Amino acid sequence: MTLIDLANPTRFLSLASRALPWLAGATTILLAIGLYQSAMAPDDYQQGATVKIMFIHVPNAWLSMFVWGVMSVAALGTLVWRHPLADVASKAAAPIGAAFTFLALVTGSLWGRPMWGTYWEWDARLTSVLILFLMYLGLIALWRAVEDQSRAARAAAILTLVGAINLPIIKFSVDWWNTLHQPASVMRLGGPTLDRAFLIPLLVMAVAFSFLFVTLHLAAMRNEILRRRVRTLQMIQVAQSGRRSA
Amino acid sequence: MNAMSLGPYAIFIVTSYMLVAAIVAMLIAWIAIDYRRQKRRLHELEAGGVQRRSGRSATELK
After folding, report:
1. What pLDDT is attached to residue A83?
2. B51: in domain
3. Which chain A residue has the Cα nearest residue B20?
4. Which tens digit of pLDDT belongs to each residue from B50-61?
5. Range of the domain at B12
6. Considering just the CA atoms, what is the radius of gyration of chain B in Å?
7. Is B31 inside any structural domain?
């Protein structure tokens, strides 16, 4: 099966239906292993048991940016190749990305209160992630506000690509500005600074959440394709009833 | 996870995990319910005699 074949919505539905049970199974197993390892991880010498929040906060934070990256690639598919499956991929990813970003913000806040003494600080990292969350909400609103789906797709694609400017700002905000948020400790030049006792559960949880995203995204794309078929059939129904009454 | 071993900030840790579980469960439920809704609408339309131009079933996944 080539990439062109996958771009056909019917072929995509067939592939998604076959892949989803396996992806859901792999996600469940990975989450179970990750949660077990997170529970068994030792306390940090400074943060104590609150370090366990890292195992869910960091994967959600990574995915909040990764999902926008996926939507940016889909936006190119919409604007350059005008492919409807790219529109579907972008539209289906937005609510999932918004949920991951919301979780990154709230778990970060719940981690920040005992460690920093505050739930929120208007520093560069927290503010840029909040902007990312607001952009997700804006995209979802845009998809709902514009009736013509191809026009909505083009507008959403432009907004997505403009919003992608925020991704390097989020990533490097802790280096460019003096922030309360700690600097990168995993994805950095020179390798991770985390001890293996924390790094391994974190990476397992990151892979588990990535599988969760792929599973949810494929399922949401399948729903969106079916929704478009419903709309098409409703238009055919209206046209047929119009011909009958004429 | 034993809440007794989570120290003085157990409430923050447990709330974080519960919140993630709740939001992920909501996402899964929303997607599953939406799938059933779309399939039901398509079946209703096809039962009413509306067909795709290709003549193939709109709920065809294979």
Report:
1. 85
2. no
3. A103
4. 777 666 666 665
5. 7-45
6. 22
7. yes
State whether B45 and A39 contact (CB < 8 Å). Answer: no
A 10 A CB-CB count for A52 gives: 27
Q: Is the pLDDT of residue A245 over 90?
A: no
> Would residue B1 count as lying in a domain?
no
Query: What is this model's ipTM?
Result: 0.89
Whether B44 and chain A come into contact, CB under 8 Å, resolves to no
Determine, for residues B42 and A230 on separate chains, whether the beta-carbon distance falls below 8 Å.
Answer: yes
What integer is the mean pLDDT of B3-32?
A: 91
List of E strands, chain A: none
How far is the C-alpha of A70 from the C-alpha of A52, rounded, in Å?
28
Chain A residues in contact with B16 by the CB 8 A cut-off are 53, 56-57, 106-107, 110-111
Q: Find the residue in A nearest to B44 (Cα).
A: A230
CA–CA separation, A83 and A81 (whole Å):
5
What percent of chain A lies above the pLDDT cut of 70? 96
Q: Report DSSP state, residue A195.
A: -
Phi, psi of A73 (to 5 degrees): -65, -45
Q: Which chain B residues have a beta carbon less than 8 Å from that of A111?
A: 12, 16
Q: Are A173 and A124 in contact (CB under 8 A)?
A: yes
Q: Which amino acid is at A97?
A: G
Number of domain units in chain B: 1
Cβ-defined contact of A222 to B1 (cutoff 8 Å): no
